[in-house]
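lol forgot to send this yesterday, sorry. struct tokens for the thing we talked abt
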């Protein structure tokens, strides 16, 4: 081997050696619990940077689904999700602009960067997790049991042998039929054309309980506090916030806020405001 080739070989070996040192350093930081910091530093989040630079958070929603979101003729947005978005804006000290898009077009508009987040009673969709970042759930709208406080039915195993009212053709109706068919539950199903009529059956004592989604249950309880909601949900339908997959810092900030608000009761208070007012 000539001297020139020997020098080149030593240089190449040195380069490989230093790369090993860098990789070892990253591994050490990961082991010490600093992995999130390192990875965040290695990735850019242009969406979060723009929000901070422009002092503006753009939120997409289909504002035709009260009490979650609605917009009046004057262009004023109101609802649970609207208040949630404004709370994020206050937390980050930025203004919030709402973009009204039909629900079927929300994902396309997000990918085209028409806004930064979707907050619109959005169900979690595991088939889209390669293209989107979803937050933790801020509200579950699954099916629950509603009964009178003096005849509390708290769990699905307490339904057998009881009369249970439902809205005709609803998900709750299908659940009860499935329980009778697959579990031999012997539930007397009382279908009604409207949920309010099912609630009347419970209040007058003709039914021991009714099945409906949690948001509707909260509204019913707001109208009549004698109704209580069972602690065991029959299904889980989590609502989440969505961002582009290349916005990890933004989604991290959303999750941090939701964790704190769940712990300090902010989310509970928001639910009480919009789902228990009785109007």
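and heres what i got for the seq, position by position
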């Amino acid at each position: 081997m000539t001297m020139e080739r020997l020098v080149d070989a030593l240089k190449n070996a040195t380069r490989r050696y230093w790369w090993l040192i860098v990789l070892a350093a990253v591994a050490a930081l990961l082991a010490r619990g600093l992995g999130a910091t390192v990875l965040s530093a290695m990735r850019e989040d242009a969406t979060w940077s723009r929000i901070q630079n422009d002092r503006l958070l753009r939120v997409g929603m289909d504002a035709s689904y009260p009490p979650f979101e609605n917009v009046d003729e004057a262009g004023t947005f109101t609802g649970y999700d609207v208040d949630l978005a404004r709370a994020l804006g206050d937390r980050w000290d930025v203004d919030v602009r709402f973009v009204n898009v039909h629900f079927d077009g929300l994902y396309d508009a997000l990918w085209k960067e028409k806004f930064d987040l979707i907050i619109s009673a959005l169900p979690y969709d595991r088939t889209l997790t390669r293209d989107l970042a979803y937050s933790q759930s801020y509200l579950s709208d699954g099916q629950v049991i509603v009964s009178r406080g003096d005849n509390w039915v708290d769990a699905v195993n307490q339904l057998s042998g009881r009369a249970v009212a439902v809205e005709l053709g609803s998900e709750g109706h299908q659940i009860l039929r499935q329980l009778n068919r697959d579990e031999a539950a012997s539930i007397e199903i009382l279908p009604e054309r409207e949920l309010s009529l099912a609630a009347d059956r419970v209040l007058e004592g003709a039914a021991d309980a009714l099945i409906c989604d949690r948001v509707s249950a909260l509204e019913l309880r707001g109208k009549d506090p004698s109704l209580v909601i069972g602690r065991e949900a029959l299904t889980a339908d989590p609502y989440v916030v969505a961002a582009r997959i290349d916005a990890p810092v933004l989604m991290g900030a959303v999750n941090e806020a939701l964790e704190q608000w769940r712990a300090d009761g902010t989310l509970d208070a928001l639910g009480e405001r919009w789902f228990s007012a009785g109007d």
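The mean pLDDT is 87. anyway ping me if u want another try
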